[in-house]
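Data card: per-record layout.
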Amino acid sequence: MTALTIAIAAQASPALAQTPTPRPTSGIAVAQAATTSPRPLLRPGAPEQIQQASLGAAGFNAWVQDFAKRAQRQGVPFEVVKASLTGIRYDPDIIALDRNQAEFSKQLWEYLDSAVSSNRINTGRSMLSRYATALDKIERRYGVDKEIVVAIWGLESAYGGFRGNTDTIEALATLAYDGRRGAFFEEQLVAALKIVQAGDVNPRAMKGSWAGAMGHTQFMPTSYLDHAVDFTGDGRRDIWSDNPVDALASTAAYLDDFGWKKGQPWGVEVRVPQGFDYAVAGDGEKTVAAWSRLGVRGVDGGNVANHGKAQLLLPAGARGPAFLTFGNFDVIKRYNASTSYAMAVGHLGARMRGAPDFTASWPRGDRALSSREKEEMQKRLTAKGFSTNGIDGRVGPDTIAAIRRYQKAMGLVADGYASTDLLTHLR
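The structure for this 427-residue chain is written out next.
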């Protein structure tokens, strides 16, 4: 695609502290910005499908010119806008990645096998030793267990080995123009320009994943603005360089801001008694004493330590491990809302400290449902009067609750587990 040169009227604004050297461009400039956003329109009746005919260099360039004016109206100086947007291109490969949804997903235990592998545990321990001085200071400053910070680092970028090499501003502009989640990515793009404005990074050095997550611990720009810190004291909140300290401290600051409690586990593996009513797992938080009265015990048969209110988590239903999860589990989910991710972070951190693997076995013979099968399951549940509040091919809290209601009505074990057996029963 043709590279872009910004050609809008400069408004009075302070100059950049560092003016980057833009990539070579074709010299093509859009003389006048469109009066309304030229982002591709959504096709009527199919909100998830983008009108591909309107995608292309000309439309993208016009959209960027228009966005440049909007960014200035939100307080981004002209010099920053020009330095950041000059030379960027529409990247169709990013749109292909955004559209790609794997037909089949891994089961939780397969994900954990990789996320909490022996290699990742051992490398994490090495990083705890290598950055011990900085991590101890970070832990004291923010009150967040260093093993959890390192676990997030390990999962997000393999301890800095895979930080992403995509131009963040170009990626965000492509995604914002595309329109599927245009408003979200435009907000992230404005935030990225404000990061440049603050002098934290040269726009072409702002690298990350294709979706705009940046640096060692993969911060989105808005999260960076809200939580990133300059822990090294060099005047920049640098999460991109080979030195991970600012990124690790920023991650700790993020978790602290959302209420992390040092020394509290994310959760503990438990056992439930014979004949247990699995439907109560959907009743929300209870005190540890209340769970004890229902027969829930630690895997050693003893009482579970009181770390505050807890929820009963059955990620593989009645035939897999059971957990009581505490407040820190929800804090990890503020970083990434996936239950699998939160379990992986918590478990990896615990394994670095020497904790054993889970005791109970996973139902490894179960096949994961494909996205289409999950959608079919949601449609069939909803048609039978057990609404999942949307058909999206993802098994979230609403779908789990619908499964439980259906299972209870049918006299099945109401564990909320989405399985091939359940889909067969629905059919």
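Known properties of this structure: The longest helix spans residues 57-73. The chain has a mean pLDDT of 87.

See the next section for split statistics.
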